[in-house]
Write a structure and sequence with these properties.
about 525 residues, alpha/beta, Aminoglycoside 3'-phosphotransferase, Chain: A, domain 2, Rossmann fold, 6-stranded antiparallel β-sheet, elongated
Length: about 525
């Protein structure tokens, strides 16, 4: 526990030699931060999270000095000194070591909040040129950062695996609080499988001295664009988290840009770093490390849920933010190394669109919906009803052929640009499915057929509800269901094999989505 008078004293403007007008306090799960006008004082909490231990005064002193030393590398003019706090004989607190030493504080210059990268991004004033400058700054830092010896040892695959296992152990109590059981198990399986399958690559990274004494916590709130590029608040409390592959370091910032909705800038940052480093192996590792750091941020943010020193509102906000980080980590774990073309197959009302929408969110895929394409070809609004007889009007054989041709043409454009695509359609004809397979093969994309099946009673209920609701582009209805059923060519062609996945959509949609992704990842 902190000294009983510590927070009270630190919040008193008269306690400071420079006499600020006021003092504000911010808490993290490991620190008290006091903002006293143009100066900032950080005091470490007496906590032990396993991966850090600040439980004794000597440990806090050591890590304060380490914080000062390490941050001088990227923010030399920001970190000023380590100050001592003592208790006088009358019980009051004072600066210096003339009394009983009770705490230590890192003293820093206050950086302008409006120049922090996370704040500037909201103004729309960050472009690829600035991301290039940041990439160059980080690359130069990495080039001169220490390597070899203990750094290589702690940056080995054994340490990377240990960090992951520690994450899973520490987050298991948070299942159904900040992450789901499906997310936990899927990410764990992905991470441990990747490590096992790429052991030689991790060893190569050590041999090539790609493991450096890095920053370790490179995210948007730790970059200030003031008089150049100031990068602050590196990890001082655990060498395992700072002795990193440079690929991990840049993955962290890329992940944070993704999390905040700036995916293109994240891609630009990676592209620029690759330009300076010419380190092609990063492409293989980037998604793995983005998954890891999103998980770490989810874990660390989630710890606030159990922090009794913060209010209930802050705990609820932390839980929501942590959940979003875990969702992002899952999306990275679910991602493929090359573009994916997914086609749905199945009768009307079998839940193809719900499945496609859920998968698109996780895989960041473009959805091409045949019901929309069909009406676009006739210059009709998507929600305009057209209850044609089966196989007539806009549902004629000729219109269906044109619809599928247009859908595949659109898919080709997206796939060539490196984007995943889901074509939401019935794909009832063998030839239609073979055309899609041929496109994926031509573009060297993964290919999957997700065939949706469901009991007819549920299908009837869905179709009747859809007609009544009127908010769906599909014109499917129960009276023509049997005709489509008789016209559907079973998915048995040899092109499918393990790429043909049957999804029973009578279950919870989330369960269907997770099962589909799990099966696709195993097959792909």
């Amino acid at each position: 526990m902190a000294h009983s008078k510590l927070i009270e004293s630190m919040l008193d403007p008269s306690f400071y030699p420079h006499a600020p007008a006021d003092v504000k306090m911010i808490q993290t799960h490991i620190s008290y931060i006091f903002i006293a006008e143009d100066l900032v004082f950080k005091i470490k909490k007496e906590v032990d999270f396993g991966f850090l231990d600040f439980t004794t005064l000597e440990k806090r002193k050591y890590f304060c000095n380490e914080e000062l030393r390490l941050n001088k590398r990227l923010a030399p003019d920001t970190y000023l000194s380590v100050e001592t706090l003592s208790e006088a004989s009358d019980g009051s607190l004072m600066w210096g070591d003339n009394g009983r030493i009770i705490e230590y504080a890192v003293k820093m210059k206050r950086l302008p909040e409006e120049r922090i990268l996370s704040r500037i991004l909201h103004t729309g004033k960050i472009d690829e040129r600035i991301m290039d400058a940041i990439a160059r700054r980080v690359f130069t830092f990495h080039e001169h950062a220490e390597t070899g010896g203990e750094i290589d040892r702690l940056g080995s695959i054994e340490t990377v695996k240990k960090n992951h296992i520690e994450n899973f152990v520490q987050t298991e109590p948070f299942i159904d609080i900040t992450l789901t059981e499906d997310q936990f198990s899927f990410i764990k399986q992905y991470a441990l499988s990747f490590l096992s399958e790429n052991e030689d690559l991790f060893k190569k990274r050590v041999a090539m001295h790609r493991i450096r004494d890095c920053h370790g916590d490179l995210h948007l709130q730790h970059i200030c664009l003031e008089d150049g590029i100031i990068i602050f608040d590196c990890i001082e409390f655990n060498k395992r988290f700072r002795y990193l592959d440079v690929a991990a370091e840049i993955a962290f910032l890329s992940m944070d840009l993704d999390f905040n909705g700036y995916c293109k800038l994240g891609d630009a940052f990676i592209k620029s770093y690759l330009k300076y480093s010419r380190d092609e192996d990063i492409k293989k590792l980037i998604n793995f490390y983005r998954c890891y750091f999103a998980y770490v941020r989810g874990k660390v943010t989630g710890f606030v849920v159990n922090d009794q020193s913060v209010g209930q509102k802050e705990q609820q906000t932390a839980a929501l933010t942590a959940s979003k980080y875990f969702e992002l980590s899952f999306r990275y774990a679910a991602a493929f190394e090359k573009p994916v073309l997914i086609i749905t197959a199945g009768l009307m009302g079998t839940g193809k669109s719900i499945l496609a929408q859920g998968l698109a969110k996780i895989l960041k895929a473009e959805i091409i919906r045949s019901d929309v394409v069909r009406k676009e070809l006739r210059q009709m609004p998507p929600l305009e009803r057209h209850f044609e007889q089966f196989g007539e009007g806009i549902y004629s054989e000729d219109m269906s052929r044109r619809t599928y041709d247009k859908a595949l043409a659109s898919a080709e454009i997206h796939l060539k640009e490196g984007r995943n695509v889901i074509i939401d359609a019935s794909f009832k004809k063998k030839q239609e499915r073979q055309n899609a397979s041929a496109l994926a093969e031509k573009l060297a994309a993964h290919f999957f057929i997700l065939e949706c099946v469901c009991p007819e009673k549920i299908i009837k209920d869905r179709l009747e509800a859809r007609v009544k609701n009127g908010a769906d582009p599909s014109d499917g209805r129960w009276e023509i269901f049997q005709k489509q059923k008789n016209d559907f060519e079973p998915v048995k062609e040899e092109i499918c094999g393990e790429y043909h996945i049957i999804v029973n959509t009578s279950r919870n949609p989330t369960a269907c989505i997770y099962d589909a992704i799990r099966t696709m990842k195993k097959a792909g």
